[in-house]
Each structure stands twice: as structure tokens, then as C-alpha cells.
Amino acid sequence: MQKGIDSVLDNSGFMVKHFYMDTKRDNSPEWLDISGKLALEIVALWKPDLVIAMDDNAQKYFSRFLANKKDAPLVVFSGVNASPAKYGFPATNVTGVLERPNVLESIELLIKIYPGKIKKMLFLSDKSSTTDPFHDYIKTLKLPVEIVASKQPLTFDEWKQTVDTYKDKVDAIGLYVSRTVKREAGSAENVPEEELIGYINSTTALPTVGFFDSATEAGVLCAVSVSMEEQGRQAALIAVDLLRKNKKIEDIEIIPTKKGRIQLNLKVAEEKGIIIPYNVMARAKFLVR
Fold it and tell me: What DSSP element (H or E) covers 159?
């Protein structure tokens, strides 16, 4: 996201400052509340003309408190998985960009790699304000597979138990963001996504498909991911239009970005004895070898 924002704003002539709420690393209720209050205090101190707020936690704990407020800055959100209405958007001073995972496109990619073999799937992620809407969203889609289960384990043991329970009942596992699964109950330590996905790869022969930007880097076989760089870039372009008064808040339609990024993990494919068709590989934007 930051790379996309910087690609637009670095040479825009605007003064830019950053504040990182860091709620993926520390998602404790105490820090979520504190980080939102710190962000609001910084806005009160800096008095910016516009704020770009990225991800659902930024809206839940920060930007929604600026909506429709007198003397509040303009707000552009991005990376939002939930319905904007959940945060009171759109508002007189708020617009932005939605994030909608490329679930159908990703599953269709997996089916091209495994033609005729993918009928039933397990969907896995952590439990957070980013992933809760995902599990609701997939239920609204007409998919070419049966969703056997949609789970959000809280701990590594729960993750293992879920994989072990369903590994003989499904043909593949779909993975969304999994950055807040705890090492154990009561622990503050998050298990790295690479370790979570590594457990799947080491204990099952199931192919995996991802719906997040770093999927294949974390060990997932394939993905058609939302480009988070594009999410940041679109938010910054909207910000520039508003600041230069090329557009007004009401002129901007709140829609998802459209660019998908095909990813393949050739190392995982080799380990599982999977032959990826050349026509699929040729379209990939990102390869892990």
C-alpha cells in the first residue's frame, strides 16, 4: 500500500506525514483503542487537509470519528473489506476504495492447474476486522466448488486441528489473511503465515489457493490477488484530485480496484508433483521459484 501511495505523492508537491497504527502486529484490544486515539491526536495536532486511512482497523478505530465532523479533514480510505456503511461512509468528507478479494478468479486459476479435481474446499483465515467480512463475502458468491467449511482459528493448535479435521474431506484449501493466529491461547505472539501454511504443505497433499497479496511468498501454491500497491495508488490519486479540487467527494464512486495479480509458487508445485500448464505460467505476474 505504502509503495502505491508514494508512487503518486512523492513528486506531487504536497507535504506528507505518516503514522503507522501497526494493528496487524499488535491486535490486542488495548492497542487497537490506543492506536486509534493516537491517530486522532496527531490529526488534531497536524491539522492536515486530507488523511488517507488504510485497512479496516484504521476505519473502525480512527477515521469514522472524523466523518461528517465540522473542521475535520477530508478522508480517503482504502483496503476496506467491510461495507463502508459499517463505518458511516460515505460521508460529506469521506470517500475511498474498496478491497474485494478475487475469490472466483483464484479458484478458476486453481481449477486450470487441477482440471476436474477441485470440487470441495475449506476456507481458512485468522479472525480480524479484515477477515470477518471475507467469510461473509464468500457466502454471497456463486462458486464452482462446494464450501465445506469456513473457519477462523484463534491459535496454532486450533489451526492444526482444523486442517487435520478437514484434510480428508476437501480437495483444496483457500487461504485469506492469517497474521493474528496466536502461538497459544493467552499469548501475544503471532504465528507467521509461512509457518501456518507450512503446516498444511507438510501434513497434507492438498493444493492451496490464496486471496491475499503475499500468498505465494507465504507458501501458497497459487493466487489471483488484489494488488495492495494498486489499492494505495488509487487512494493517492483520489487524494490528489480532491486536494487540487479537480473533483469533489460526491463525484467519486466507491468501488474496488480491478487489477488482479496472478501468482504461482513453483517451489511448492515441484514439491507436490504438480505440473502447471505453460499457458497459466505465462500469465503470471509473480513467480516464487
Answer: helix 156-166
